[in-house]
């Protein structure tokens, strides 16, 4: 098969298709012919050599954390899938390819209403958002959450899931165009962090109480204000560190207001945990993806020869929602 292999790290030009051996499914794997693959921030880091794949290291380092395609073969212990099924899957790598193998419990059926391109926009950001809202932040209907980067892939998913679940979503973003998008995804209130301090807006909107949870991708630059934006017993979920990973905090704030800071990463989790998450997500969110309450947000679809351009667009923060590579038409 053809795949994009990271033989060297660097600029988007290193993303070149080459021939590699076809993957062979194990007893619990699906062999999937990929039609579309999602681009993620982690892929940008991996391309630069800053996010190595988990052990055991594959012979060929193929990026790509999610895909949508058709099952062409199943291992002997696979349950619930058969050749011909349309599936979307969470991967630890290997999505920038024509074929991939994936444990069947990391795959979900694609709802009939969704295309392969739309389905490839789901696994990474919707699973991350679902996990952050419910399993990390433990939010309940009636709670309020502040979602940073409200027009990002994860942000767009989190705001939609929050709205559908009766959780009030507020969002930050860096431009009017992105604020408008965040509103459409479900944010009831939005703030342009380039023009105003989000902390002041949150305090004003909440009458000084703060929010029950913050979903953060920014890290370093926001840590202090994120903690100050939380209500007593609030939970800060660290999902990314776009501004840097190191920050000092006043531990006194944690004590006096009984705050919690939690980190989360999907790729490095033990396989069993990932499988449990995918199955729970499928049960709770699958029906909402099928009836259109939750919609994957596609910013742009790139051909298989334009993967470098997709990386450049994401690096420049120009996307609203997901960038997708159409591997096969
Ligand atoms: N932990 C996990 O398992 C997991 C899974 C998926 C994604 N992530 C992380 O979640 C984050 C979002 O991913 P995504 O795919 O949704 O990204 P995305 O669609 O590319 O959006 C990221 C947005 O963040 C904003 N941003 C970038 N740098 C910023 C900074 N220094 N300060 C404030 N805002 C900044 C930009 O929007 P504005 O123009 O509005 O600033 C940018 O468009 C990334 O850090 C990614 O690595 C983590």
UniProtKB/TrEMBL annotation:
<dbReference type="GO" id="GO:0070402">
    <property type="term" value="F:NADPH binding"/>
</dbReference>
<dbReference type="Pfam" id="PF08240">
    <property type="entry name" value="ADH_N"/>
</dbReference>
<dbReference type="InterPro" id="IPR020843">
    <property type="entry name" value="ER"/>
</dbReference>
<dbReference type="InterPro" id="IPR013149">
    <property type="entry name" value="ADH-like_C"/>
</dbReference>
<dbReference type="InterPro" id="IPR036291">
    <property type="entry name" value="NAD(P)-bd_dom_sf"/>
</dbReference>
<protein>
    <submittedName>
        <fullName>NAD(P)H quinone oxidoreductase, PIG3 family</fullName>
        <ecNumber>1.6.5.5</ecNumber>
    </submittedName>
</protein>
<dbReference type="Pfam" id="PF00107">
    <property type="entry name" value="ADH_zinc_N"/>
</dbReference>
<dbReference type="InterPro" id="IPR011032">
    <property type="entry name" value="GroES-like_sf"/>
</dbReference>
<keyword id="KW-0521">NADP</keyword>
<dbReference type="InterPro" id="IPR013154">
    <property type="entry name" value="ADH-like_N"/>
</dbReference>
<feature type="domain" description="Enoyl reductase (ER)">
    <location>
        <begin position="10"/>
        <end position="325"/>
    </location>
</feature>
<dbReference type="InterPro" id="IPR014189">
    <property type="entry name" value="Quinone_OxRdtase_PIG3"/>
</dbReference>
<dbReference type="GO" id="GO:0003960">
    <property type="term" value="F:quinone reductase (NADPH) activity"/>
</dbReference>
<keyword id="KW-0560">Oxidoreductase</keyword>
């Amino acid at each position: 098969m053809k795949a994009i292999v990271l033989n060297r790290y660097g600029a988007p030009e290193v993303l070149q298709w080459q021939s590699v051996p076809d993957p062979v499914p194990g007893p619990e794997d699906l062999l999937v012919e990929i039609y579309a693959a999602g681009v993620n921030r982690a892929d940008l880091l991996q391309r630069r050599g800053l996010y190595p794949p988990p052990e055991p290291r594959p012979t060929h380092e193929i990026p790509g954390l999610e895909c949508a395609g058709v099952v062409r073969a199943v291992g002997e212990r696979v349950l619930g899938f058969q050749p011909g099924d349309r599936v979307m899957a969470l991967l630890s790598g290997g999505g920038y390819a024509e074929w991939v193998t994936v444990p069947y419990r990391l795959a979900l059926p694609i709802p009939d209403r969704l295309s392969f391109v739309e389905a490839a926009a789901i696994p990474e950001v919707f699973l991350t958002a679902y996990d952050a809202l419910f399993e990390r932040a433990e939010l309940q209907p009636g709670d309020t959450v502040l979602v940073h980067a409200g027009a990002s892939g994860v942000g767009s998913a989190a705001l939609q899931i929050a709205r559908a679940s009766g959780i009030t979503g507020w969002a930050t973003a860096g431009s009017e165009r992105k604020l408008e998008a965040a509103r459409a995804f479900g944010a009831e209130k939005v703030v342009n962090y380039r023009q105003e301090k989000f902390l002041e807006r949150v305090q004003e909107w909440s009458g000084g109480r703060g929010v029950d949870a913050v979903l953060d991708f920014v890290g370093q630059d926001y840590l202090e204000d994120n903690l100050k934006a939380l209500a007593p017993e609030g939970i800060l979920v660290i999902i990314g560190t776009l501004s840097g990973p190191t920050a000092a905090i006043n531990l006194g704030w944690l004590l006096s207001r009984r705050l919690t800071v939690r980190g989360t990463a999907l790729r490095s989790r033990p396989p069993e945990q990932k499988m449990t998450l995918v199955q729970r997500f499928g049960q709770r969110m699958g029906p909402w993806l099928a009836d259109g309450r939750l919609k994957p947000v596609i910013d742009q679809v790139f051909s298989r020869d334009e993967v470098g351009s997709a990386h450049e667009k994401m690096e420049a923060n120009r996307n609203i929602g997901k960038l997708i590579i159409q591997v096969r038409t």
